[in-house]
Design goal:
Layout: H1 2-11, E1 23-26, E2 29-32, H2 35-40, H3 51-56, H4 71-95, E3 116-119, E4 122-125, H5 137-147, H6 154-158, H7 170-183, H8 189-202, H9 206-211, H10 214-221, H11 227-244, H12 253-257, H13 264-273, H14 285-294, H15 304-314, H16 323-333, H17 352-384, E5 387-390, E6 393-396, H18 400-404, H19 413-428
Antiparallel strand pairs: 1-2, 3-4, 5-6
Helix pairs in contact: 7-8, 7-13, 10-11, 14-15, 14-16
């Protein structure tokens, strides 16, 4: 029994991997594995080596102590297993060399994180990879600057930094900048400028605004958009500034966005105009619309906040300061929301929206030309038809039926039919006016009177 089992183990050594003990019981008989089978089997050693142990071991060295009870034969088995362990470890290392990632920070050697990307077996450095940017954005920006060189848009004379009192105290001036931006939401610059002028005459500081009633404050800012909500926002914001910021405004975008009625666009513009600090791009409806029309966003955006993130991803920081003021004026004068003046824009050939709009206008002009040629034909026809008045009758020199086939205007034919009637009247020698032409009378309905 022992010999046959030993021979079985020699030919099928993997059976010992599934047997955790040396002696086990099968069908009531005790089967004992002899030491000779243990020595000849490379899988039967004092310590078992697995792939997971090799992967987790940093030094890739596993020390195996031979069992003294097995003698010299067991030491040979251990040496054989060590050789197999070394070959297996080398295979694992060779297979896992390509998984090494550079951007993982090791605990022992803390170094700068370098992002990498593997493409077709080559490791590319994402830090030095070129960022996405529009193809013709520099030419488009230069053209917009040339169109805005006179600075005569409404935002140039009625912007938030212009309609505030620059001679007032710094904290009062910053408070007025904040109020002007809160009023400018969904409101034209002309209306905002007039409302701020009335507030300055009334006294535009925190104490005076808090002492003013809601009804009076609503009358002062009328007719700005959403006036009732803005009155509530102004009162709550003024109270927060008085209690938490010492009658001044916050100096960070995060704190400004926590104020009632203040969004990211207002916060970035307040930081630029009030604190002279550029932390981001203020994107309003004009900047949002023009950026999508020019193709300055990688994908079309629906919200101004998405447009801001897309612009800040590629636009150089040196243009962040003037881009809002530049595009707002351009949107007020040329790239308007309804009826943009693409024919007058210098970017008409390098703007996707401009090319499509001008293509539609060319088709429209061709249709108008065809209509004008039809009108010229009708004028020639009226010149050819000579009407001579002889007393009461009217004579037509040319035959009307021949000319009727050459023109397609249907509005002219009722008048010609009247001329035919007049010609017949002149031939008969009867004098009848146009109003006396007999028309078929409608039959009268028999209406029974109700008793």
């Amino acid at each position: 029994m022992e010999g046959s089992l030993a021979e079985l183990i020699k030919h099928f050594p993997f059976m010992l991997e599934t047997v955790p003990i040396l002696a086990y019981e099968t069908a009531g008989q005790h089967i004992i594995v002899t030491s000779d089978a243990m020595n000849t089997s490379p899988y039967f050693s004092s310590s078992k080596v697995t792939r997971t142990k090799l992967m987790t071991n940093q030094e890739n060295e596993i020390k195996i102590e031979p069992n003294s009870a097995q003698g010299s034969s067991s030491s040979q088995c251990v040496s054989h297993s060590q050789a197999r362990t070394a070959s297996l470890a080398s295979k694992v290392l060779r297979k896992r060399q390509h998984i090494k990632i550079k951007d993982e920070v090791e605990t022992d050697n803390v170094c700068n994180v370098e992002s990498t990307k593997e493409e077709n077996g080559k490791v590319l450095d994402l830090k030095n990879e070129k960022k996405w940017e529009p193809e013709m954005w520099r030419d488009q920006l230069a053209n917009i600057n040339s169109m805005r060189k006179f600075r005569d848009a409404p935002v140039d004379t009625m912007g938030c930094d212009v309609i505030c009192d620059e001679k007032a105290a710094p904290e009062v001036y910053r408070y007025q900048v904040l109020l002007s931006l809160m009023l400018s939401s969904q409101t034209k610059d002309q209306v905002t400028s007039a409302a701020m002028a009335r507030l300055r005459e009334h006294g535009c500081n925190i104490d005076n605004i808090l002492a003013t009633s809601d009804q009076r404050l609503g009358e002062l800012i009328f007719p700005v958009g959403f006036g009732k909500r803005k009155v509530d926002f102004i009162k709550r914001t003024s109270m927060i500034l008085k209690e938490e910021y010492g009658k001044d405004i916050p100096d960070t975008v995060e704190k400004l966005c926590k104020l009632p009625g203040v969004g990211p666009k207002m916060a970035y513009l307040v930081m630029k105009c009030a604190w002279n600090q550029v932390d981001g791009i203020g994107v309003d409806t004009h900047v949002h619309r023009i950026s999508n029309r020019l193709g300055w966003v990688k994908k079309p955006t629906k919200q101004p906040e998405d447009t801001r993130k897309a612009l800040e991803a590629w636009l150089p920081r040196e243009h962040w300061n003037d881009i809002n003021h530049l595009l707002v004026g351009f949107g007020q004068q040329t790239c308007r929301p309804v009826g943009p003046k693409c024919g007058q824009c210098l970017n008409v050939n390098i703007c996707p929206t401009g090319r499509s709009n001008t293509r539609y206008q060319k088709v429209k002009k061709e249709v108008k030309k065809e209509q004008s040629t039809d009108c010229v034909k009708m004028e020639q026809f009226s010149e050819d038809v000579k009407i001579e008045q002889h007393g009461v009758g009217v004579k037509v020199a040319h035959s009307i039926q021949a000319v009727k086939t050459e023109t397609a205007d249907e509005e002219f034919w009722p008048a010609i039919k009247k001329d035919q009637v007049k010609m017949e009247q002149s031939r008969d020698g009867k004098e009848r006016s146009e109003n006396s032409v007999s028309q078929p009378k409608k039959p009268k309905r028999n209406v029974k009177k109700e008793k």
